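In the current project phase, we have settled on a layout for protein records. A sample record is reproduced below.
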Amino acid sequence: MAWVFISIVLLMRVVQNVLGKAAAKLTPNHSVGYLKHNAFYMWLATVPALILFLISIIGQNGELYFGETLLYASLSGIALAVSSCCSLYAMTTGTMVLNSLFGTAGLLVPSIAGIFLYEEYLTVWQYIAIVIFIIGAYFLMGNSKTVYGKFTLKTLLVLILNLVMNGVTMLSQTMFARSLPDGNVSFFSLLSFAAGAIALSIILGVIYIAVYKYKDKPEVEKSDVSFVLIPKPGKHLKLDKRVYIWSIFLAVAVFLVSQLITLCAATVSPVVLFSITCGGATIISSIVGTLVYKEKFTKETAIGLVLGIGALIMIKVFAA
């Protein structure tokens, strides 16, 4: 059953890549735009999570363990919220495959944490694979620079933050599944998405209350807005109507990915689980980026993909 779930996860990754890139191109290119977009889809994701939670309560499937579940879910949800904002920005300044590869590299977090938490040690070959992975990422950075004309330090830092936060999300899912094997997965998903949505909404509220009340803030021109800039209220803050529509499908896809990976984490090693699901997502990103969004598939892309995916396979094959 675990492999059926993993197959569904890979299918949902296609939906995430297609709609995520489309939404990123239409989302206002500043912090408020990213916060509004991600807060909206995370609130939407709580709906199917709530429905499944109520069904599980009726069927008496899984224990709630409120305190422990809240802890793991909050960590997962907040990390997912930060990762989503970083990913949205990265897709507007770099290629899909580069963004996906850094998100995939988040598997290093649960893999390394597994050494201390579950005594699942990394082998020498797995450490070599990490080095190979970094080399592959370097080639994809060069390809991204070729496609978009530049690759800035800010983009790199956002990608690294995306890596870490995506890894924390994976680790939280693994810790919940391993620590509470009979826990209610739907309850975990509900609290996770709610925690992320609440965190983003609070930040938006603080921005509007603490910053926008000052009328002497200069108007921000479209060419000047950036990831960390907080612009003055205006039409440029509104989300395109298509973003709201696509967010509905995106929320369902993200929910299914979170739900199914958490279920699989109880029986599948985190190194194997996240290598397959995230590595597959990277390949899918390359295909979607080339066919749908006309991102050039260059020699650097090919080398970066071979090295990156090869490194992930090594991490799986040479697991201790």
User: Anything to note?
Assistant: The chain has a mean pLDDT of 80. The chain has eleven helices and no strands. Residues 185 and 263 are 7 Å apart (CA to CA).
